[in-house]
Specification:
single chain, 679 residues, alpha/beta, Rossmann fold, 3 domains, six-stranded antiparallel beta sheet, five-stranded parallel beta sheet, 28 helices, 16 strands, 50% helix
C-alpha cells in the first residue's frame, strides 16, 4: 500500500502478498508488461532467482515434447514468482503459445468435478484461440464436451453412493462407442501440430502453466494431474505445474495409505510418472539479507546501507526462515508497529526512549523480536512476562514446566550433552532448553532459539545498560501484532524497574547494580551537581536517565551506562545564535538525536536537541568545561529565549504537508555536516 501525503510525497507502508513480477492479467500479458530481454528481471531480482528462471526458460525452448515439469516448494516459497519470470522471458521470443491457469481460482465455489472441467476447458479454449480451422475447433469442442461431461457423471454417481467405475471405463476406454480420452488426445495432437506448422506466425511450442495446485484439496489435485496427463500428453506441449510433493503424497493416502518407508516407492512412482522434470525452489540459495533489506527500505524502516544484510539474514534464518511470504508478513508487522509508534511519538513525545541504546540497535531489536513473535510465539510470551532473559534460571523454568521434561527418559542424557555446547553453557540457556524441550517444534529448533536470543544479548544490546529494560520497551511496541489464543490483555513485566527514581541517590544505586564503573558514576555525579549549580532541575527516569529541566521544560539529559563499553551521553539544546549547528572540536563532536530521513517527518522529532557521546574515560575531564557550558547555555535559552528553540513541531508539520522549503531546511540543518567549530 502506498500512502500519499498532501498529494506530493508517497511512501510504502505495506507489502502486498503477490508474486514478484506478477502478471496484470491471467492467461496473457498486456503489451506494457512485455520484457524484451532479461535485464529488467535481473535488476528487480531481489530474491536471486533470475539465473534459475533463465535456465528453465532455455530448457523449455530446447526440450523435446511432451514433457511435464514440476516446480516444487512449500506455500509462499516463490513458485508463482518463478513461473511469472519464465513467462516474461519467453514472451519476448514470441515463439511460444503460453497459457496460464490458476487452479485455486477455478476451485472456489465449485465441486471438485466442476473445477476439473473448468481447468481443462480453459486450457482447450486457449489452445483454440490460435487461429485454427473452424472444423477442427468445433470437433475438439464436441469431443471435450463429451469427455468432460463424463467426468461430471463420475462425480455425480460417486456423490449418490453408486459406483462411478462404469462411467470412468466409458470415458477412458479406447474401445468404447462414445468418445474416449484417446480420441480427444488425438484431436489435440492434430491441433497442436496445426498451431506449430501454420503459415502465419507459427508457435514453436505450447506451454501451459498451472499455478496454485497445492492450494486445492490434495485428492482433487491428484485427480487433476491424472486427467491432464491423460488428455494433454501430446507432441508440442509443455506443462509446468506449481505443486509441492507433500500435497501429492497427501492426495494419494486414500489409495496407498499413510506414507511409510515401506510404501514410499509407490508415492514416488506416481509422482515420477506425472513429472518428467522436478525442480525444487532454491530457498537455501535465496539472497535473504538483501531481499529483506529491500522490503524494509520500501516501508522506510531503514535507509540505504543502514543495517547489515548479513546480520539480518542470520536473524531471519534462525527464526522465520527464507519463505518470501513469511518475510512479507514480517515486514508488514514492522510497518504497522512503525506507524503506531510514530503516532504515539507525535502525541506523547519521546521522554521514555532508551537513551542507552542506539537507533540502529533499537531497529535491530524490534526486527528480531517480531521475528521471534512470528516464529516462536511461546518464547515471545516468555519475554513478555520476563524480558530480562539473562536472568532466566532453573527456578524460572520450574514455574513453567513443573519438571515435566524430566519425565522423558531421554531428557537427562540429552540435557547433559547440550550443556557441553556453546549454545547451552549459560544458566539462562539451560532454562530455555527446559521450557522448549516438551514442544516438538521448539525442541527441533532449540539451538536456533538460543542463537537468536544470543544475538540480542551479545550483538544488538552489547552496550545496553539493562537488557531487560531495552527488551521490555521494545516489546511494548510489538504487542499490537501479537497473535494469541486468549482475550486476556498482554501484561508486559518490568520486574526490578521503575519509571521514576527517588532522586540522584536512587538512580546511582541502579547504575551500581548494573555494574557501571565507579569513575563513570563519579563523573555523572559531578555533572549533575554542575547542572543544578547553573539552574537546571533534575528528574530521573527508567530509560532516559537524568533529565534536565527548566520551568517544567526539558533542556537535555545526562546518562551513563554500558557494562561492556561504558559511555557518557549528554543531550542539550541547540543554540539559535549558532544557527542551530552542531558544536565540534577535536575529540568532541555532537550529533542529532535522530537521523533525518526524507519522507518520514517523525525523524525530525526532538530536533531541538543534540547530544555528545564520550566513550573514553580519559576524555571526560578534557571536555568537562565544554559540557558544563552546553548545559549553562541551554538553561539560559529556556529562561530567556524559549521562543527561539529549533522549530521542531512546525517543521515536522510543514514537512508532512510536502512543503519544499521546509524539506530543504531540514535537509540542511539536520545534516551531520551542519556544524560549527568550538575552538
Amino acid at each position: 500500500m502506498v500512502v500519499e501525503q498532501s498529494g506530493k510525497r508517497k511512501y510504502m507502508v505495506g507489502i502486498v502478498d503477490e508474486p514478484i513480477l506478477a502478471l496484470r492479467s491471467v492467461g496473457s500479458l498486456s503489451e506494457g508488461n512485455i520484457i524484451r530481454n532479461g535485464e529488467e528481471i535481473s535488476k528487480s531480482d531481489s530474491l536471486g532467482i533470475a539465473s534459475h528462471a533463465h535456465a528453465l526458460a532455455t530448457f523449455f525452448s530446447n526440450t523435446d515434447t511432451p514433457i511435464t515439469v514440476g516446480i516444487q516448494g512449500e506455500w509462499g516459497s516463490g513458485k508463482t514468482s518463478l513461473l511469472n519470470t519464465i513467462h516474461h522471458l519467453l514472451v519476448a521470443e514470441n515463439e511460444f503459445k503460453q497459457i496460464w491457469v490458476n487452479a485455486w481460482e477455478h476451485s472456489l465455489l465449485s465441486s471438485p468435478e466442476d473445477a476439473l472441467i473448468k481447468i481443462t476447458s480453459e486450457i482447450i479454449s486457449e489452445m483454440l484461440t490460435s487461429d485454427v480451422s473452424k472444423v477442427r475447433s468445433d470437433r475438439v469442442k464436441e469431443y471435450a464436451r463429451t469427455v468432460l461431461s463424463g467426468v461430471l457423471r463420475i462425480g455425480a454417481t460417486a456423490a449418490l453412493g453408486t459406483k462411478g467405475g462404469q462411467v470412468a471405463d466409458e470415458i477412458f476406454s479406447a474401445d468404447a462407442k462414445s468418445v474416449s480420452i484417446k480420441e480427444l488426445r488425438s484431436e489435440l495432437s492434430e491441433l497442436t501440430n496445426e498451431i506449430m506448422n501454420r503459415q502465419t506466425n507459427p508457435f514453436k511450442k505450447i506451454i501451459v502453466y498451472i499455478d496454485d495446485l497445492d492450494r486445492i484439496e490434495p485428492k482433487d489435485a491428484v485427480q487433476l494431474l491424472e486427467l491432464l496427463k491423460n488428455i494433454f500428453n501430446v507432441q508440442g506441449c509443455i506443462f509446468v505445474l506449481a505443486i509441492d510433493y507433500q500435497v501429492v503424497v497427501k492426495g494419494l493416502e486414500h489409495k496407498f495409505g499413510k506414507r511409510s518407508p515401506e510404501n514410499e516407492w509407490e508415492f514416488r512412482a506416481f509422482f515420477d510418472k506425472i513429472i518428467q522434470l522436478p525442480f525444487m525452489m532454491p530457498i537455501g540459495q535465496y539472497d535473504i539479507g538483501n531481499y529483506v533489506l529491500n522490503l524494509l527500505r520500501q516501508i522506510e524502516f531503514t535507509a540505504e546501507r543502514e543495517l547489515d544484510s548479513r546480520l539480518i539474514e542470520k536473524i531471519v534464518l534462525a527464526s522465520i526462515g527464507g519463505n518470501p511470504r513469511s518475510l512479507k508478513r514480517l515486514v508488514n508487522s514492522l510497518s504497522l508497529i512503525q506507524i503506531f509508534s510514530e503516532i504515539n511519538l507525535n502525541e506523547l513525545g519521546d521522554e521514555e526512549s532508551d537513551a542507552s541504546t542506539s537507533e540502529d540497535a533499537q531497529k535491530y531489536l524490534l526486527f528480531t523480536l517480531v521475528c521471534i513473535q512470528i516464529a516462536f510465539p511461546d518464547v515471545y510470551n516468555f519475554l513478555v512476562s520476563n524480558p530480562n532473559f539473562e536472568h532466566w534460571n532453573a527456578d524460572w523454568a520450574f514455574g513453567i514446566t513443573r519438571l515435566k521434561e524430566t519425565e522423558d527418559e531421554k531428557f537427562d542424557r540429552q540435557f547433559e550433552a547440550a550443556k557441553k555446547t556453546d549454545d547451552f553453557d549459560e544458566d539462562w540457556e539451560q532454562a530455555l532448553y527446559r521450557v522448549c524441550y516438551l514442544n516438538p517444534r521448539y525442541n527441533s529448533r532449540i539451538s536456533d532459539i538460543s542463537n537468536i536470543l544470543s544475538i540480542i544479548k551479545d550483538r544488538i544490546l552489547e552496550d545496553a545498560d539493562n537488557i531487560g529494560d531495552s527488551v521490555a520497551a521494545t516489546i511494548a511496541k510489538t504487542a499490537i501484532t501479537n497473535v494469541t489464543a486468549t482475550d486476556d490483555p498482554q501484561q508486559i513485566s518490568r520486574q526490578g524497574t521503575r519509571t521514576f527514581y527517588d532522586g540522584m541517590a536512587d538512580w546511582i544505586i541502579k547504575l551500581e547494580e548494573e555494574g557501571v564503573a565507579d569513575e563513570w558514576i563519579s563523573f555523572v555525579k559531578e555533572m549533575h551537581e554542575k547542572a543544578e549549580g547553573v539552574g537546571a532541575e533534575t528528574i530521573f527516569t527508567r530509560l532516559a536517565g537524568c533529565s534536565l529541566m527548566v520551568n517544567g521544560k526539558k533542556i537535555g539529559s545526562l546518562g551513563v551506562g554500558g557494562k561492556r563499553r561504558p559511555k557518557f551521553v549528554m543531550s542539550f539544546l541547540k543554540d539559535f545564535e549558532k544557527e542551530y549547528r552542531l558544536p565540534m572540536k577535536l575529540g568532541l563532536r555532537a550529533k542529532h538525536l535522530r537521523k533525518f530521513q526524507l519522507g518520514k517527518p517523525t525523524t525530525a522529532q526532538q530536533a531541538e536537541y543534540c547530544e555528545v557521546v564520550i566513550e573514553n574515560i580519559s576524555e571526560l575531564e578534557t571536555h568537562k568545561d565544554e559540557l558544563v557550558s552546553f548545559i549553562w547555555r541551554s538553561v539560559q535559552i529556556m529562561n530567556e529565549h524559549p521562543d527561539k528553540l529549533f522549530p521542531t513541531k512546525d517543521l515536522r508539520k510543514r514537512i508532512s504537508e510536502g512543503d519544499e522549503a521546509a524539506i530543504e531546511y531540514a535537509r540542511k540543518t539536520l545534516s551531520a555536516e551542519y556544524t560549527y567549530d568550538l575552538t
